[in-house]
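SECTION: protein entry
WANTED: fold as tokens:
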Amino acid sequence: MVFSKTAAELRLVRRETVISTAESADKLKESGCGSREDLRDWNCIGRKLHLAQISLQNKLSKKAASEAAASADSQANGTKNNHVPKAGDIFQADICIRLEEDANLQYIFNGMIANCSEDVKSLASMNQESFNDVRVNRGEYVCFEITRAIDKILAKIFQLSRLYAPGGLKDHFLGRQAKIRAFGLIVSGNRRDFESACDKVRAFFVETSKNPNLSKNLINQSIPFFLCLVNHETLYSQVTDLKLSVERLTETTEGLKETTEGLKETTEGLKETTEGLK
């Protein structure tokens, strides 16, 4: 498969899970990023644009979602589930990679996207950079989410924003100085639904950017955002290939580190032997 070969050729560092600390949880509470209020306001705009609504399950972290399911009885009795961000909340990122060498964005996804001119749309309200023109420099991040269902697009953008918006988990997850070169969402579905979704997402970004209270918790619109259409059958297998390739690269790197440490120890031993002979 071309994509797995390409990933193996690139030096990448992949980030997958972030666990909230007390500091990052306090930041989420202060900014309101990922809050019930944000969810309500996003759904309000999405409803006007005929975008599928975000559910509470999409809003919560993995750990919090389990807690919400366990409290079904209290919800049935009319008790609201107002989850407050706290240390220990777990969040997942589908594709969050930092390049260890310069590369074109198109090259990173080579083999996954059949036709970049037709299957990729640039939708950020303040950056219409072409997918083919994006150059990712060493040390920069590429952050994408994936979903089989086009009707989950708004929920996935919500998750991206919670992870990478200024008021979200970005500083804790990637570091304060980390630079994100591109955002995106990889979906599968038919061409008509994809084209319709592109128009709606573009309009959503424009409308949300007009509201300071919403835009502060939205992914940075000066960074390009790409909606990508891929084949349904190979969507997750392709992403798995990328993950495995990066993991293999990590294992290789660790092996080289161990070998280097072994050589250092051997060198030190030779030095001591030489000193003894003197």
Q: What stands out?
A: Residues 2-68+85-241 form one domain. The beta strands are 12-14, 17-19, 90-92, 95-99, 103-104, 120-122, 135-136, 141-147, 180-187, 225-229. The CA atoms of residues 29 and 84 lie 7 Å apart.
